[in-house]
Write a structure and sequence with these properties.
With 124 residues, the chain is mainly β. 6% of the residues lie in helices and 50% in strands. It comes from Angomonas deanei.
């Protein structure tokens, strides 16, 4: 199933859908510019940018007990003294890129920033 096929089956923001491969698709930003794909069998998260005009910047804040590996091109660091794990990912237009492998623990918060392509030269 392609991302376009998954999107056609989607409805409201935040609604999840799973296929036989254990992949889950969620709308990550209104109005559906960015999608988070979770492959549970591999424990991997991916993001798909469904725009032509914006570079999407995803910043994730994960609990200090999270057991994860950052997948390129994402960047990861630990904030001290809290121990929070931070990840940042730049997703170019119409691209799907990996972010992490593993299991977030203690909760997480994702934030998104849409940067016009004309202004995103320093990001890509």
């Amino acid at each position: 199933m392609t991302i376009d096929e998954k999107k056609r089956k989607k409805g409201k923001k935040g609604k999840e859908e799973k296929n036989a491969a254990g992949e889950e698709l969620q709308v990550a930003s209104p109005p559906g510019f960015l999608y988070r794909l979770v492959n549970h069998s591999q424990g991997r998260w991916y993001f798909y940018n469904d725009t032509k005009d914006y570079v999407m910047v995803v910043t994730g804040y994960f609990g200090p007990k999270s057991l994860m590996t950052c997948l390129p091109p994402a960047k990861m660091w630990r904030e001290m003294p809290s121990g929070l794990v931070l990840m940042e990912l730049v997703v170019e237009p119409l691209k799907t890129v990996p972010m992490l492998e593993g299991e977030p623990k203690d909760g997480f918060d994702l934030r998104f920033n849409a940067v016009p392509v004309k202004e995103a030269g320093h990001l890509v």
